[in-house]
């Protein structure tokens, strides 16, 4: 595994992501022939390593750029936080996505305050799970993960280190 300081500068990550679009497409193809369980284990370990080194509150980019799903179970909490009825909360703060799920209607997230989530302890499942690198099925989700590669330092660094670990030739 590569050592050194992870890249956290979003401007640098954006430039590198643009330069590596074709490379990342080749990497997706490269991973198709690998053992998905082994890749999941490597990604999970890299995720733990990067999450320990990267302070998400210094970034907050996910809260600025992601469309967050709000499950029906989470909607009453959301309404209670704003001291409105669930119907009022849906109309004022949520939109209905293509699949019928409710998503936050505004970006950045209404709960973002100085790069910190004002409801962190009770944040939505979608927020708690991001960047989803601890979950199985990384190779099946790689296209989706790469859509966030330019905006999330953890994803960027995990993918770059995974390239090295699996012997991907650039």
List the helices and strands and how they pair.
Elements: H1 10-19, H2 21-32, H3 36-53, H4 61-65, E1 69-70, H5 75-82, H6 86-93, E2 94-96, E3 102-104, E4 112-113, E5 116-117, H7 125-129, H8 138-146, H9 153-165
Antiparallel strand pairs: 1-3, 2-3, 4-5
Explain what the structure shows.
The longest helix has 18 residues, at 36-53. It contains 9 helices and 5 strands; from the N terminus they run ααααβααββββααα. Strand 2 and strand 3 form a beta hairpin. Helix content is 52%, strand content 7%. It has 170 residues and is mostly helical. It has a 3-stranded antiparallel β-sheet. The protein has a two-stranded antiparallel ribbon with strand order 4-5. Helix 3 packs across helix 9 and helix 5 (75-82) packs across helix 6. It has 2 domains: 10-59 and 131-165, no CATH class; 67-122, no CATH class.
User: How many domains?
Assistant: 2
Low-confidence stretches: none
Order of helices and strands: HHHHEHHEEEEHHH
Q: Give the averaged pLDDT, no decimals.
A: 91
Sheet having the most strands: 3 strands, antiparallel
Strand sequence of the main sheet, in spatial order?
Answer: 1-3-2
What is the first-to-last residue Cα distance?
Answer: 16 Å
Number of strands: 5
Helical stretch count? 9
Query: Hey, roughly how much beta strand do the residues contain?
Result: 5-15%
Overall geometry comes to elongated
Measured as a percent range, the helix fraction is 40-55%
Structural class: mainly alpha
Rg, Å, rounded: 17 Å
């Amino acid at each position: 595994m590569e050592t050194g300081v992870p890249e956290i500068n979003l401007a640098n990550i954006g430039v590198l992501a643009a330069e590596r679009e074709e490379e990342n497409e080749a990497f997706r193809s490269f991973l198709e022939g690998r053992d998905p369980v082994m890749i999941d284990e490597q990604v999970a370990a890299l995720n733990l390593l990067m999450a320990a080194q990267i302070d998400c509150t210094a970034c907050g980019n996910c809260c600025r750029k992601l469309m967050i799903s709000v499950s029906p179970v989470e909607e009453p909490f959301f309404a209670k936080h704003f001291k409105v009825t669930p119907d009022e909360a849906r109309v004022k703060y949520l939109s209905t996505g293509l699949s019928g799920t409710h998503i936050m209607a505004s970006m950045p997230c209404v709960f973002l305050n100085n790069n910190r989530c004002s409801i962190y302890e009770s944040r939505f499942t979608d927020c708690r799970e991001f960047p989803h690198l601890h979950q199985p099925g990384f190779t099946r989700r790689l296209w989706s993960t790469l859509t966030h590669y330019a905006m999330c330092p953890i994803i960027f660094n995990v993918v770059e280190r995974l390239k090295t670990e699996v012997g991907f030739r650039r």
